[in-house]
């Protein structure tokens, strides 16, 4: 490629055919310059500012108000307390081949009529399984009546650690934003996650919280990791191939970004509606620029939202560095977390976290969680909205009551303790730290 280009320009020089056009354009240039200079001084109303006078673009107070962005800016709710209504959550539950039963179980364990749910089975799952999942959602009387559970018909090829993963999450968020104007937080779960508190507990505790707090575990990438992660370039074939293939590493390296700082953290997040509107609608270019940057970055789900939130003045103070999950790692940590089982039960409970991962399919500890933490006997983990009879085998949730009344239990107390710690001055002083 490069060789061709060189020999081509070499030939042009040796021909000397460039001489005539070169002098012609030089002459035109000089004429233009002279006329501009003389035109300026001989202008009849020379005192006027030039029409192309530029207002210096800075993000300071004096220039805001001139530009459309400042109006858009004003439209977001920075206090987070405009609504005193009880909160609503929007869940994405995603899975792959063979996960549909587990996804259904997670869905039932986190179900509450106030919330919104979207299920995504990736392209590795056979169409039959996606159909079965859709049919079991359709067959549920409560889901049919409340209409708050959706299965994504468009199924995406998702590469582990590739940008197709973040693209899929963004699509689900876009659907949730369009379909429901009411939710306050978005939560990301997989088929191997499970809740440790009831939705009543979670909604009760979050009722009292500012609606602009983003739970996103993050640290700035620094040291050797910065060179290793920030300079490598990957390509995710899931973006353009129809069959799944592994991420490809290129031999080229790129320089580190200087217009923003890189952050990384947990791929499990609980994000506010206002932050996600900022990311999805894109009236500010930063979320889009960073998304494009992350196309070639390894593990974009562990960095995209983190880098956007910490590089945006309006949001950096809203980022609480915790992913609200109990996750156990090997020492030293391996690539995947440990599978949780009976022996981890006490530690999970003690953590106060509302969710845990990861669990093997049908692990007996899930039954223990159902029985002891969620009170789940039938379909759902019951809440104050379940007002039917619970005699014998009857499902109290078959009759729905007021969904803004919550019955909080010990789970709410555990979560409250965790949140108190997360919202303490000491903890919040570590928000979006910038190491230099
Ligand atoms: C948006 O608002 C914040 C503070 O509320 C301000 O610091 C920032 O400069 C504003 N951005 C624009 C583009 O006006
Ligand atoms: C969302 O959830 C999935 C689990 O299926 C996870 O792998 C992914 O990285 C998560 N995070 C984001 C930001 O997409
Ligand atoms: C809500 O906040 C108030 C005041 O900060 C506090 O007294 C109350 O205990 C909180 N309630 C819950 C459920 O956390
Ligand atoms: C539901 O409960 C809330 C809070 O207790 C109350 O404000 C509301 O009026 C109730 N709604 C109905 C329809 O009873």
From TrEMBL:
Bilayer-spanning residue ranges: 20-41
A Gene Ontology term for the protein's cellular component: membrane
Family matches, as InterPro entries: GLCAT14A/B/C, Glyco_trans_14
Localization terms from the record: Membrane
Keyword line: Glycoprotein, Glycosyltransferase, Membrane, Transferase, Transmembrane, Transmembrane helix
Molecular-function GO term, any one: glucuronosyltransferase activity
Keyword Zinc: no
Topological type in the membrane: Single-pass type II membrane protein
Keyword Transmembrane included in the entry's annotation: yes
Protein name: Uncharacterized protein
Native source species: Liquidambar formosana
């Amino acid at each position: 490629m490069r060789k061709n280009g060189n020999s081509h320009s070499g030939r042009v020089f040796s021909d000397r055919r460039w001489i005539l056009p070169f002098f012609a354009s030089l002459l035109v240039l000089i004429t233009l310059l002279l006329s501009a200079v003389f035109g300026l001084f001989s202008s009849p109303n020379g005192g006027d500012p030039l029409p192309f006078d530029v207002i210096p673009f800075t993000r300071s107070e004096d220039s805001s108000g001139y530009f459309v962005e400042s109006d858009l800016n004003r439209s977001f709710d920075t206090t987070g307390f405009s609504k005193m209504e009880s909160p609503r959550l929007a869940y994405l539950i995603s899975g792959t081949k063979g996960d549909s039963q587990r996804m259904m179980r997670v869905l039932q364990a986190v179900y509450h009529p106030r919330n919104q749910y979207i299920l995504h089975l990736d392209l590795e799952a056979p169409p039959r399984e996606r159909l079965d999942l859709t049919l079991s959602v359709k067959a549920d009387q409560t889901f049919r009546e409340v209409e708050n559970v959706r299965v994504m018909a468009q199924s995406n090829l998702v590469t582990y650690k590739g940008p197709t993963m973040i693209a899929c999450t963004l699509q689900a968020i876009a659907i949730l934003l369009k379909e429901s104007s009411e939710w306050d937080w978005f939560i990301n779960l997989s088929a191997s996650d499970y809740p440790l508190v009831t939705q009543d507990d979670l909604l009760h505790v979050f009722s009292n919280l500012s609606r602009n707090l983003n739970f996103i575990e993050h640290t700035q990438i620094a040291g050797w990791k910065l060179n290793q992660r920030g300079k490598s370039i990957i390509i995710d074939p899931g973006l353009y191939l129809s069959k799944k293939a592994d991420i490809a590493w290129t031999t080229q390296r790129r320089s580190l970004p200087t217009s923003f700082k890189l952050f990384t953290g947990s791929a499990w997040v609980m994000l506010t509606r206002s932050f996600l509107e900022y990311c999805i609608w894109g009236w500010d270019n930063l979320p889009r620029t960073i998304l494009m940057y992350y196309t070639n970055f390894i593990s974009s789900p562990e960095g995209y939202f983190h880098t956007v939130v910490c590089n945006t003045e309006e949001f950096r103070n809203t980022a609480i560095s915790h992913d609200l999950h109990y996750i156990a790692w090997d020492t030293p940590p391996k690539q995947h977390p440990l599978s949780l089982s009976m022996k981890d039960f006490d530690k999970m409970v003690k953590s106060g976290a509302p969710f845990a991962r990861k669990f093997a399919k049908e692990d007996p500890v899930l039954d223990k969680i159902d029985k002891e933490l969620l009170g789940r006997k039938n379909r759902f983990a019951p809440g104050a909205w379940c007002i039917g009879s619970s005699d014998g085998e009857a499902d109290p949730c078959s009759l729905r009551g007021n969904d803004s009344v919550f019955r909080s239990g010990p789970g709410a107390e555990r979560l409250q303790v965790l949140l108190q710690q997360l919202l303490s001055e000491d903890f919040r002083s570590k928000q979006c730290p910038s190491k230099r």
